[in-house]
Hints:
The protein is of the alpha+beta class. It has five domains: 4-73, Alpha-Beta Plaits (2-Layer Sandwich), CATH 3.30.70; 75-208; 222-312, Distorted Sandwich (Calcium-transporting ATPase, cytoplasmic transduction domain A); 404-429 and 562-672, HAD superfamily/HAD-like (Rossmann fold, 3-Layer(aba) Sandwich), CATH 3.40.50.1000; 431-560, Calcium-transporting ATPase, cytoplasmic domain N (3-Layer(aba) Sandwich).
Amino acid sequence: MSAKLELSVTGMTCAACSSAIERALNKIPGIKNAAVNLASEKVTIAFIDPENPVPVHTIVNTIIGEGYGVTEDSQDIRAKIAEKEFHALKRDFIISAAFTLPVVIGSMFNVPLLSNWYLLMLLSAPVQYWTGMRFHKAAFQALKHLSLNMNTLISIGTNSAFIFSAAAVFFRNAMINAGITPHIYFDTSVVIITLILLGRMLESKARGRTSGAIRKLAAMQVKTATAFRNSQEVVIPIEEVVAGDLLLVKPGERVPVDGVVTEGFSSIDESMLTGESLPADKSAGDQVFGGTINRSGTFRMTAQKVGKDTVLARIIKLVEEAQGSKAPIQRLADRVAAVFVPSVVIIAVLTFIIWFFFVKDGTFALALMNFIAVLIIACPCALGLATPTAIMVGTGKGAENGILIRDAAALEMAHKINTIILDKTGTITKGEPEAVDLTIQDSSFGLTEKDILTIAASAEKFSEHPIGQAIVKKAAEQKLALYDPTDFKYVPGGGVFCSITDSFKRTFKIIIGTEKLLKDNGVDTSTTADSALLISSSGSTPVYVAVENRLTALFSVADTIKDDSVEAIRKLKDMGIEVVMLTGDHENTARAIATRVGIEKFHAEVLPDQKAEIVRSEKTGGRIVAMVGDGINDAPALAAADIGIAMGTGTDIAMEAAQITLMRGSLVSAADAIRLSRLTVRVIKQNLFWAFIYNIIGIPLAAGVLHIFGGPLLNPMIASAAMAFSSVSVVSNSLNLKRKTL
């Protein structure tokens, strides 16, 4: 039996919900710890004795008893439930908005027929008690278990406004006779519900995408493999492959499992693991990994690790664990509501009691008016708008600047970032090799740089190797006409042989490739030792060109730094953020790149699971860590970070695993995203201040403090105006974000 049990929970809407489930489960004897993750909607339960765990039905019944649902912990089932919830919220929002618009118009302006109080009540009722019923039910469930959450705040506020308004409609004359000026607040209740539904709908959509990274990673796992059975090639399901099987991998296929090459040569795209754009040349004795792509050559391999033991399976597991871990952030509005809601209710009840029983000229109508005035002025309209309006404006401004933010939690958390980890390839660098330099080593044949580039590109014309294609691309940029090579031969891990006949009808035997290839074919490379070392130490790859067995030229091929990477790293440092670089490159290359962009701390030759481990180690000591990457290999690290930031020019899987996507593929956007978060959080705090300052001043006035000392009572109309003004202040302050520069 596993030491842990994972279940999917439905019906949670805020941090108070997850806390209620945790409290209930942790009271069960035999449970060591229960942790609920609101974002992934999962509960992870650790047992004191894994051999004698608490029965699953006991755990399920406890969760259901708290008013929530439990479903099978399946990616597909969770995805279907999330989609169903999103469509339900979308439907309720559209219906609610359709009814809210005429209510707001009829309340604000004197429109014939539309401003009739009975009609406004009829239009408001479906919003209050149909589309808004989810909030009232959730508030009731919380009340049953003696807890309060954001739903309680919404339910009390909207019900107080609606019920008082309904009383004004039906008992208008009675209120007038009692000295109470009747007024309606239907627009208040419907606007709150409509805006909260919009926020929940957007949040639901974001949650529905959290499992997308895992599904796409799983799609990379091979379904079948070509194995040898009784010396015959047989295609078998991947589940039947066992360690020790001899497998055949053809060009264009994915490597089925982890293992070692036993026969043949190939060039394999391992970017999903290393993040490096250059494929790895493989021959007998070399390690290969499941899910990587065989670019060229057919080879045989012996299976070593299969099933859940493969590197790809471990990556999937790492992403699942990181996404299912408990987030450190709690929604500020829920924390405030935990104190604010009971305080308001207590004050309102005390106000009624004091005015009805202890005030000399107090009447039931007067006590009720003051009771409702307290609730009306404390109606959480501004509080409900404080965070969502700032988030909506902030995310909108981000989108305008090519910064896509998945959810509010990411935008809130990003302002705390004090360490940012950058993947090198595709993030700091362009992610593809480029021929950056060409130096002539021997001018015996009278060949110019243009001639050598033409000959080299012609020789690589039919090569699929990225280095060869980089040379071809360089020639294309200079619009050089290429020749057709003859006697072409590709040497895996080495380079190419061929013959080139130029425009002067001269035929040259050409060798292009590694130093070893040239040496093995009798070419003296000693004269270029210093130049080659200089190229290697600068983070580039030397490519040798021999004409008629004489070393003629040396190419420098590199994954070049993006134009704005240096500026971006400087911006991040100026913001007080420590910058760290991760790469699968060798130490020398990593150091050269880090020095050129101004990074002091870096880690070289790291694999995906090591990247995630480095992220976790950087998080020690309470540091808030962001990870920026673009490849499949970065997915575990992106998910393990407090904030994952994906380059939009990278893979979909990296973007699915991250909370923020930089569509322009520029590191400058990462600095802009953090600044946007800081601006947005500042606005949220300002909004909450304005939302509460009216309550701090208004609630005592609504309770009748001034009247006790001979002053006036607070008319509900004034309470409504104060509440509306606080909402206008919040919205205006949020809209001010649009004018800020990043």
